[in-house]
């Protein structure tokens, strides 16, 4: 599952977002060329050669309520900000939307240089 594989990613992919990892890498049971072993799980991540998968988040109407606005920013941070635990997504004492604004994001950013 994604919740298990992403936090267990190899050190080489430490700065990659969930978006980039899901788009460019596939989980394999055996090693091959250009594969990286997960830290603790018995799987390997192999880079796709052709083109990435298209990754999206669940559609949320941010104007519906404060809760849906926070859910939207939670999805964005989870996809585009590197993390290991969900506590890493939000800055201490801030909401998801405040964290997003504090980081200066207007549009989703990616961090991993491919």
Poorly predicted residue ranges: 106-111
Number of helices: 4
What is the H-and-E element order? HHEEEHH
Q: What structural class do helix, strand and pairing data support?
A: alpha+beta
Proportion of β residues?
A: 5-15%
How is the biggest beta sheet arranged?
Answer: 3 strands, antiparallel
Terminal Cα separation, in Å?
A: 23 Å
Question: Can you count the beta strands?
Answer: 3
Strand order of the largest sheet: 1-3-2
Describe the structure.
- This protein has 114 residues and is of the alpha+beta class.
- It has a domain at 66-102.
- The chain is built from four helices and three strands, in the order ααβββαα.
- The chain has helices at 2-5, 18-24, 66-80, 96-102, and strands at residues 25-28, 35-37, 44-47.
- The protein has a three-stranded antiparallel beta sheet with strand order 1-3-2.
- The longest helix is centred in the middle third of the chain and has 15 residues, at 66-80.
- The protein is elongated, with a radius of gyration of 15 Å.
- The two termini are 23 Å apart.
- The relative contact order is 0.18.
- The model is unreliable at 106-111 (pLDDT under 50).
Tell me the layout of helices and strands.
Blueprint: H1 2-5, H2 18-24, E1 25-28, E2 35-37, E3 44-47, H3 66-80, H4 96-102
Antiparallel strand pairs: 1-3, 2-3
């Amino acid at each position: 599952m994604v919740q298990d594989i992403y936090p267990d990613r190899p050190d080489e992919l430490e700065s990659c977002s969930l978006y980039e990892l899901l788009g460019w890498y596939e989980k394999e049971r055996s090693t091959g060329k250009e594969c990286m072993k997960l830290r603790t799980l018995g799987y390997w991540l192999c880079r796709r050669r052709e083109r990435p998968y298209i990754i999206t988040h669940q559609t949320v109407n941010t104007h519906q309520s404060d809760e849906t606005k926070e859910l939207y920013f939670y999805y964005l941070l989870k996809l585009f900000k590197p993390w290991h635990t969900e506590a890493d997504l939000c800055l201490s004492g801030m909401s998801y939307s405040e964290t997003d604004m504090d980081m200066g994001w207007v549009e989703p950013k990616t961090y991993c240089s491919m």
